[in-house]
């Protein structure tokens, strides 16, 4: 199926796009910046840059059998001033209406529109269980969601429309969890307000699978609660984070402080929506992470498939690079992919896919025209670590198609960086092994920074990389 996606470079879109590709769909993305979208989404996606006139919208929609609309300014981006409310409305309601008008102009209209919404539709409802048939609220966010869905439903005269009301989406590379995690790791996290409000949540990968299911299942239409089947209170959510991280989690963030900082926007954190996924339950959907404990364990604990160890001198590979730039640590990562070796090796051998495998906060961007992968080829790119921009040049030191390749850092932040990518067939599957021999700069200071910052950062990067690989090629239980 040919699918046009808006908002593809956002938190949900960057997980959805590789999943759509894994299912064999052709993906066309409408984005404000073509270069940024290509850097973040990889070589298998077609990108049309939106010039704001509407002409490029028709180009992006041409031949589309389905449209997925994820665009919208972040809800929690500051106080809801009059200007901020206008931006939230324009980026959702007006953009959706513009998209529907474009769809209606097509000679062959798409068969389905899947458009984002939010459980904020219901307003503040306390302990009331909220299936999709529940009535709407009357605050700003509830009215915004009603207008947003109404704009999408204008397409129901010519195609099936699904509006997915999401709750708090939990993932490694965006959403609320990375903002909350540092406080909990320090032992100063806790519930928001009185902690009694219900928090409708969902693991990012389950939300992606709901979207994929909605594409295929023609009996699904109208609103769908994109949430897990077991909502929890803010107090229980905080307690579970504490249990997973083995930290205390009892310090509340008082409601008056949230309201002082965010004004009416604090309602997103303090209002209660006990949303139930009645439609997806009725459709037989099986959540991979049905409980908040399962989701948080997956996202917050160290994956044993990613390990970092010291390197004894006798285990150092005997090659010219590591003889001149001795490494101190070894990162090892193993992933089993549900795809044949030829297809997976071809994906990893294209430099354009490096950005898809890199957390968005690092702002990965290849500079210049990347050379075709071959021995001695060089790739220049820039990244950001926290607030620090960095340039990196890597060179392909070994190239053995269908078996392995090695890239080494010629210039960049590390004293030594030797990365071996090896693949081998396991029947119809592929086992991919990464081994990185590396050393930070600055001697003793570098070793201290490694323990406190670098090693945890590398684990997060490679766990994120494994997430993307599994979305792109299929998870193996």
Which tags fit this structure?
477 residues, alpha/beta, Rossmann fold, Alpha-D-Glucose-1,6-Bisphosphate, Chain A, domain 4, 2 domains, globular
Task: Please explain how this structure is put together.
The chain has 477 residues and is an alpha/beta fold. It has 2 domains: 2-300, Rossmann fold (3-Layer(aba) Sandwich); 306-473, START domain (Alpha-D-Glucose-1,6-Bisphosphate, Chain A, domain 4, 2-Layer Sandwich), CATH 3.30.530.20. Helix content is 35%, strand content 25%. The chain contains 15 helices and 21 strands. The protein has helices at 13-22, 34-41, 55-61, 82-105, 140-153, 177-185, 204-216, 234-245, 255-262, 267-270, 278-282, 292-300, 320-324, 341-348, 443-473, and strands at 2-6, 26-31, 46-49, 66-69, 112-118, 129-130, 160-166, 168-170, 198-199, 201-203, 222-226, 232-233, 274-275, 306-310, 329-337, 365-366, 378-385, 388-400, 404-411, 416-426, 429-439. An 8-stranded antiparallel sheet has the order 14-15-21-20-19-18-17-16. Strands 3-2-1-4-5-7-11 form a 7-stranded parallel sheet, sandwiched between helices. α8 (234-245) packs across α12. The radius of gyration is 23 Å and the shape is globular. The two termini are 27 Å apart. The mean pLDDT is 93.
Indicate the topology:
Elements: E1 2-6, H1 13-22, E2 26-31, H2 34-41, E3 46-49, H3 55-61, E4 66-69, H4 82-105, E5 112-118, E6 129-130, H5 140-153, E7 160-166, E8 168-170, H6 177-185, E9 198-199, E10 201-203, H7 204-216, E11 222-226, E12 232-233, H8 234-245, H9 255-262, H10 267-270, E13 274-275, H11 278-282, H12 292-300, E14 306-310, H13 320-324, E15 329-337, H14 341-348, E16 365-366, E17 378-385, E18 388-400, E19 404-411, E20 416-426, E21 429-439, H15 443-473
Parallel strand pairs: 1-2, 1-4, 2-3, 4-5, 5-7, 6-13, 7-11, 8-10
Antiparallel strand pairs: 9-12, 14-15, 15-21, 16-17, 17-18, 18-19, 19-20, 20-21
Helix pairs in contact: 1-7, 1-15, 4-5, 8-12
């Amino acid at each position: 199926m040919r699918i046009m996606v808006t908002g593809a470079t956002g938190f949900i879109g960057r997980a959805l796009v590789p999943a759509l590709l894994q299912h064999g769909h052709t993906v066309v993305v409408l984005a404000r910046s073509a270069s940024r979208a290509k850097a973040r989404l990889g070589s298998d996606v077609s990108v049309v840059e939106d010039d704001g006139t509407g002409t490029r919208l028709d180009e992006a929609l041409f031949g589309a059998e389905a449209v997925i609309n994820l665009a919208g300014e972040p809800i929690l981006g500051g106080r809801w001033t009059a200007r901020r409310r206008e931006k939230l409305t324009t980026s959702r309601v007006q953009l959706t209406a513009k998209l529907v008008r474009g769809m209606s102009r097509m000679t062959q209209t798409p068969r389905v529109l899947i458009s984002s919404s939010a459980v904020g539709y219901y307003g503040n409802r306390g302990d009331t269980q909220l299936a999709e048939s529940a009535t709407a609220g009357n605050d700003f966010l509830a009215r915004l969601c009603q207008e947003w869905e109404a704009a999408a439903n204008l397409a129901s005269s010519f195609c099936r429309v699904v509006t997915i009301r999401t709750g708090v989406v939990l993932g490694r590379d965006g959403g609320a969890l990375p903002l909350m995690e540092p406080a909990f790791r320090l032992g100063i996290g806790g519930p928001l307000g009185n902690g009694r409000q219900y928090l409708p949540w969902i693991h990012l990968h389950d939300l992606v699978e709901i979207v994929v299911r909605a594409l295929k299942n023609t009996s699904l239409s109208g609103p769908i609660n994109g949430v897990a089947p077991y909502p929890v209170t803010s107090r229980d959510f905080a307690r579970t984070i504490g249990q997973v991280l083995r930290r205390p989690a009892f310090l509340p963030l008082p409601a008056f402080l949230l309201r002082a900082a965010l004004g009416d926007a604090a309602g997103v954190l303090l209002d209660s929506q006990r949303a139930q996924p009645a439609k997806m339950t009725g459709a037989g959907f099986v959540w991979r992470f049905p409980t908040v404990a399962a989701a948080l364990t997956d996202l917050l604990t160290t994956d044993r498939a990613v390990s970092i160890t010291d390197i004894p001198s006798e285990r150092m590979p005997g090659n010219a690079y590591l003889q001149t730039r001795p490494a101190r640590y070894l990162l090892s990562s193993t992933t089993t992919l549900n795809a044949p070796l030829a297809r997976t090796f071809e994906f990893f051998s294209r430099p354009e896919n490096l950005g898809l495998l890199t957390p968005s906060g690092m702002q990965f961007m290849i500079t210049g025209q990347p050379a075709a992968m071959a021995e001695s080829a060089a790739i220049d790119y820039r990244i950001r670590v926290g607030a620090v921009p960095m340039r990196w040049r890597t060179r392909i030191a070994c190239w053995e198609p269908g078996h392995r390749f090695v890239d080494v850092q010629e210039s960049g932040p590390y004293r030594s960086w030797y990365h071996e990518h090896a693949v081998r067939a396991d029947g119809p599957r592929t086992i991919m092994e990464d081994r990185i021999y590396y050393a930070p700069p600055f001697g003793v200071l570098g070793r201290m920074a490694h323990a406190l910052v670098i090693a945890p950062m590398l684990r997060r990067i490679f766990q994120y990389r494994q997430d993307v690989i599994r979305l792109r090629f299929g998870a193996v239980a």
